[in-house]
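Before the break, one more example. Copy the sequence into your notebook; we will annotate it together after we see the structure.
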Amino acid sequence: GEQKGADYVELRAEDVVLTFIGYSDGRVDNLNVKARSGVACRVLYDGTWGLACGMIDNTETLVKEACSLAQAASVTRKEKIKLQEIKTCEDKTTQQYRMPPHEVSFEEKISRLDTLCDLIKDHDKRIKAVSIKYADSHGFKYLLTNEGTKITQEMGHVFNYCWVTGKENGGLTAARDIIGSTEEGFEYFERETEQKIAERVAHRVVLQLEGNPPKKGSFPCVLGPRVVGTLAHEALGHLAEADLTLNSSFNGKLGEKVASDMVNMVDAPIKGTFGASKYDDEGVLMQRVDIIKEGVFSGLLTNREYAHKTGMPLCGSARAESFLYPPLIRMRNTFFDKGDHSNEELFEGINFGYYCKDYRGGQADLNSSFQIGVQEAFEIHKGEIGSPIKDLSISGIATEALFLIEGVGKELGFEEGYCGKGQRAATSSGGPHVRVEKGAILFGGRG
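Here is what the structure looks like once it is written out:
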């Protein structure tokens, strides 16, 4: 690559086995095992990227191909890309699985799904359909650069997703449950047992069937860790990805007040969270970023290109779904940090409002407008949690809601999931319980 005039040459190789089991109402409807193996060559030539992917024994050809692609594209590129310098390293990371998922038989994996399905259905006769998706993976990824970086990382995950439907008097409702780990093997399900999952998701369905319809309008509310995490990730986190910041409502606001003093929002590779690893896919050590510190917009998520462009520090946010994709700036674990209010204090003094405990799905735009379907919600009456609410949806502008946060709890909670940005990435999000004033969030029906 260097002989052909490339300033930077990187090889990312991968050798991983992935398992997927789709399961509906007592039977397996999809069982898929695939091996993903190959190498990507990415070069920076005359300030332009070139990428070529293929089999590992074709590496030399791929380097030439990537150089040719970059050379052709560089003619029309106006702004030349430069990379932030890094301290190169040689390292090898391993995972300490007690039950490596690839060593557990299909029979055992399917037996677990049978048990889970039975437990969910036995919880309440109004539960009519259970759909489960199970996935795991195990393998290695390798990074080699002409700067001297040489990293091998063992990687793997286990993942379980449930979607459960209930029906009563012609009315249908549904709830979901998502759990997973990128650090533990199949032993993860000794802690997250079938019993625990079944009780959680079935309870949500029953609450939806028995809940009251919500009032429309704006009210004071308390948001649970998972709903707070959705706001942190969907409505705010993307605004802090350096490649998106220029077109977002955070543009030009570094160092400015963007939230109430008690708001601290962080993206960090916390041990045990989904999507954390030691290094990113450019060989940069993953580090904590304080996106909002005491209400001030303080940090961006960067890769080497955007760290150079913006002057912001490197943090290890360059992640690729696989060797077939170029690394992009991605969140890892995005959350509101804890405050000093007890949960009792957060509910105190609310004559009427809502407690939004868990969400079903959500979406947001780069102007931070959001809409979230809530799958577990309750009325708040005179500071106490009251009747369950069904079909609730909440909406608002997150950057405006940040100024109306008036209480932040002491205990953090997280949820695992996947984020899409042209590629899939394992991410976590969360936070403590948060109290928000009337005027920040609009409540409506059919969540």
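The chain has a mean pLDDT of 95. The chain is about 20% helix and 40% strand. Try to locate both features in your own notes.
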